[in-house]
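request received
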Amino acid sequence: MTDKLKFDRGTALSIFKSDRMEDVMALLAALAIVVIVVITVPIS
Amino acid sequence: MTYTKKTPWTLIIGIILAAYAWLIHQGHLNVMMEALKTTKLAGEMYTLGYIFGAIGIVVGLWQLFYKHKSGHADYFLSTVGGALLIILCVFVVKFGAEPLFKMWGAMSYKAIGWDFAKTLGFNYILLGIITGMVVVNVFKVPDWAENGVRLSRLGLKTGVILLGALYSAAELAEYSKWSVGLIFVFVLGSVGLTLWLGRLRKISNSMGGVLSAGLGVCGVSAAVASAPVVNAKSSEIAYTIGTILLWGVLMMFIFPPVGRALGLTYEQFGAWAGTGILNSAQVAAAALIYQPHGIETLKVAEIFNITRILALPIIVLWLAVWYVEREQHAVKVNLLQVIVGKFPLFVLGFIVLFLLSTTGMFMPERNDGKGKYMDPVKAKALKDEQIVALQEELPRVAKPEEQAALQRLIETKTVQSRADDVLLRDLASLETTSKPAVAALKDAHKNAWMTAPRVAWFRDVIVWFFAFGLTGLGMQITFKSIAQAGGQPLFIGTVVGSVKAVGALIAILLLKDLINP
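response:
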């Protein structure tokens, strides 16, 4: 089965339809982690 | 199309992870952990075990008992099974296989004088990639996990963005200075060499274009990004990906032992890997194989890698112009559109995190810019016998300012300021200072500097993102895709890949003393 038949969304290497969308999601994930760290972990 | 499979495996992996976390938390596996010398990792084991176990159980039950319809929930939640399979693999290699290899390596050192695990870099990153490759090539990734494996590149990108939080401005300036020069030479050199070889070997312009971006810039992503501007056929993209993967995987295994044999420092190795390895993912893999329990190598390697990723829009633009000049039927491209369209946004994320870190939100004041800070109140005090050694040293100290700093250390048993720290380190470096006093001064320095909790947290999270991304990436490296490399692209790839790896090594060896701040 080819990748196109296997996944009708995203690409063979990613669940997102474009690199740009994947970059945005990575950025949002990273910012969410920053928020969690800043809220839950003391600075010193 | 419905992506969720009615499988019990997500639930089973969730239960395994939660049960493992519980056994660790209750102390039932203490004997095993002491034997494997993993006791200090207990907190990480049970915290992550509980979190991922809970996700697996909840999503696993939903996958088993809910009637699924095509949609966003089905699509995105179907990735959880594959993601947990990767995480389970990381758990096994990080907390089981790596400590075992460490033990076997130490035994082999005693028996034959060679620690094979250390020399060959058998750590959790390398073992994770190998596990992933074995899973996909020997057993095949199960249907229910296939969608989740496609999250690995997202993991790597998130890791790179978060890494931005851990650089100081001075570090970034220092490394960028070298990376811009080296990457400029090597990216332009390898793109030019590929295009020249392509003309010599009479391959099509589209094949030459896509191959040059892949070999010159940052591997698979660059090849895919440049494909539309040179009208590359899917078979040409496949040839390029095969060639890059073959070279990337080979170099990922070869670079670390060579670096060790040459005695390269973390910084030098990072610079070499970031310049000489074709594909971004394998740059991170080689850096983490070289230094699995620290991120200094990764930080340098990623600066070099990011510098070349930033060259991507320029190279795509060059190829677009180059292609239009050579092909009569080629459609002229909008230059600004190419630059904006091909700009890698996640690099912008890296810069955002770096800028956030410069505001001081991740590290307390009085930090060294590398994640450590001074806190005389929290610092561990010197032992009485060490204070006695310092008292004996006091009359022999020649400089009055060093004597005053030593006096303050004796009185408070901790280093009180950065100025004192500098003076006391100078004192420790003098040949005339007695050995017990030097040992005490070194301990006082060590005790004075503590890792900032947020930085420590970021380091752990980043390493997990990379371990996840690289193990998942291993599950995407099929021998079939590597076997796609062949003919002229493989020949050109071999020449350019070798020139780049060896050329980068020569450049690093020539600049050795400079790239080691």
